[in-house]
Amino acid sequence: MTARQVAGYLNVNERTVLKLVSEGTLPGVKIGNQWRFRKAMLDAWLDDQMLGVTPRHSEVSIMASMPRRMLDLASCFQPSHIIAELSADTKIGVIEELADLANRLDLVRDKAWFVGALIERENIMPSAMGNGVAFMHTLLRHPGQVVRPFMVLGRSHEGVDFDALDGRPTYLFFALGLKFHELHLPWLSKLSQMCAKPDAIQALMSASAALDIFQALSDAERELQAPNAKDLRFSR
């Protein structure tokens, strides 16, 4: 696709496309003096935008002229994405169990890749931030491996040593499957805010089944959105 075709596809000005791709925000390759784009990569980039993920070097309002919509959990998360009681009692075991769920749901193309990518991130910096919660994700995006953006969640009532910053066991394990490049993850900030309140954690831990866990997390999301709806809007 040419820059003009991309501008039409995204419903923005061609100058905006050229600015985004020259800054490394939009995925493209320069052949001679012309930029060329693959539609599959653009779709992957749009998936990340819809998930609330912002490219690392972007200082522009991404797709400011495109229709705006509110991000919600249902865009990438369903009750079937939840393991209400994990069997694993080790860090590697938790990762493998969640990766197996993602693979069975056809959210990733290769379970081994997802396990390795999550472990790679854990080896650099543990994802357990304390308060009994871990937010896992890969360091790099791989559009070919992630079928669509998703989140899976596992719960352990016994708790697992996950190298948490507070030295305590971890009970709730979120794992995100994202696409495209190495990115900031503002959505993780949203999740951490949702789980920051003790009553939210208590609701998630006391829920009896996957559907109840999903409802408790949805309630926490609505409570977070209520006073800050404008801050949680994003561009498609």
Can you identify the CATH superfamily of the largest domain?
A: Mannitol-specific EII, Chain A
Distance between the termini: 20 Å
| Strand/helix succession | HHEEHEEHHEEEEHHHE
Tell me the radius of gyration. 19 Å
Please, what is the average pLDDT? Answer: 81
Biggest sheet, in brief? 5 strands, mixed
How many domains is the backbone divided into?
A: 2
CATH topology of the largest domain: Mannitol-specific EII, Chain A
Q: Please estimate the helix content.
A: 25-40%
| Number of strand segments | 9
Provide the CATH architecture of the largest domain: 3-Layer(aba) Sandwich
Q: What order do the strands of the largest sheet run in, or round the barrel if closed? A: 4-7-8-6-5
What are the low-pLDDT stretches, counting only 5+ consecutive residues below 50? Answer: 53-70, 181-185, 228-236
At the first level of CATH, the class of the largest domain is Alpha Beta
- Tally of separate helices: 8
Strand content: 15-25%
What would you call the structural class? alpha/beta
Can you give a write-up of this model?
- The protein has two domains: 3-70, no CATH class; 73-235, Mannitol-specific EII, Chain A.
- The chain contains eight helices and nine strands.
- The protein is an alpha/beta fold and 236 residues long.
- The two termini are 20 Å apart.
- Helix 1 (3-10) packs across helix 2 (14-22), helix 6 crosses helix 8 and helix 7 (198-206) packs antiparallel against helix 8 (210-225).
